[in-house]
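hey so i finally got around to running the thing on that chain from the lab meeting. sorry it took forever, my laptop kept dying and i had to restart like 3 times. anyway pasting the input first so we r on the same page abt which one it is
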Amino acid sequence: MEHSGRLHAFDNLRAVMMWLGILLHVAVNHTTGDSPLPWRDAQTSPIADLILLFIHAFRMPVFFILAGYFVAMLIAGRGARGMLAHRMRRLLLPFVVFWPVLIVCTTIVMLVYLHVMARGTAGIELSLLAKKSAGASPFNTMHMWFLYYLIWFCALSAALAPVWSRISVRVREGIDTAFLALAGNWWGPLLLTIPLAIVGSFYRAGVMASSGSFIPQLPEMVHNGLFFVTGLLLYRSREALFPHFTKHCWKYAIAGLVVFIAALAAFDIFTRKPGTVPHIEAVIAYVYNLSSWCWSFALIGLFLRYMQHQNRVLRYVSESSYWVFLVHMLGTIGFGAMVYTWPLGVVPKMMLNVAATTVASLLSYQLLVRHTFIGVLLNGRQRPRDGRLPAQASAGPA
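ok and heres what got predicted. didnt touch it at all, straight out
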């Protein structure tokens, strides 16, 4: 197992989580419940609901844990200022560069989708957007909200680093001991879930959803920040926790499945028999977020155990994942509009959309990004031919 240098297991895990975003956002096109998004295919299915709930349970928690881990690693190697400079180059600069482009392009393909929904043909009609999103601000962070909050967390980490350094060694060791107890024992996730359940209980169906607002929202800061801080502390306790997660990864995976099934049962009650169970949102928020912790720890252990190394394919997937994260929504919306009128079922439409978005994302990465200044902007200097990178390098937004 790797404890120094480049941790390929986490590179691989981060890349897979980014690619799951394609499947998740394709599923959004076909969900059966109320959607905050103005576009959706006429054909819906509980399968899409299940895919959405399943991926959403662990994808962003894992992202923020990994992000916190890499921030702690950078602070250890470069200091707080060096970390902040590095993260702002990889996070803030791409956000400033790509957000204006993506908001325009996303709006265009969304308008085309709405025209197909309303008229059956491709086109652009601004009045359709006004009807679908009355009162909503056209300016939001979109799917880049993850980068936006990560920028805030990095800035806060840099600002609080001097405070941490002034805390007595005894206090810091006490915090490490408490965290090790929480993350290293079966009862730890039960306690870690409590603040997430409190936050989630105020949301519909007990599931916190990103607002996309440029004004940081306290519930989102608390929810995502807890996973980020977990990553920060995980770096300090990695020698003890990596073997623990590796050894018990399948136990965490099975436990996560059990509580996820319980969450589905609670979701069913909320949907089919509203009001029959008091505070059902709090129940859902607890069991659903408990599955998030279990599966996050499981995935860390599984990738440390089985995906420690990279081959050419995994390396390519890892290097392309940041670009795919940025542009994949254009594909999922655009190809969703393309197949809207096709006489196909939900599953074939989803498979076609995922495949087309994947191919388009990879082709654009290969032709426009990999060997250009855009690739340097997103992933830093290009990998030498021997495939080695400096020990503290970390491609991607995490």
